């Protein structure tokens, strides 16, 4: 059961990293919401 929890945590961290990158792109390059949704 601990393995499943660690997999969930690992997956959650990956998604968080993606969100941070996209938000940084949004701020840096003045992307629209539509552009950001295409990146995701």
Question: Can you characterise this structure?
Answer:
By secondary structure, the chain is mainly alpha-helical. The protein has one domain. It has two helices and no strands. The chain has helices at 2-29, 33-39. The chain is elongated.
- Helix count? 2
Global shape: elongated
Rounded to the nearest angstrom, the radius of gyration is: 14 Å
Percent range of helical residues = over 70%
Number of domains: 1
Please give the largest β-sheet: none
Strand content bin: under 5%
Terminus-to-terminus distance? 30 Å
Number of strands: 0
Structural class: mainly alpha
Rounded average pLDDT? 76
Order of helices and strands: HH
Low-confidence stretches are: none
Layout of SSEs?
Blueprint: H1 2-29, H2 33-39
Brief summary:
The protein has 40 residues and is an all-alpha fold. It has two helices and no strands. It has helices at 2-29, 33-39.
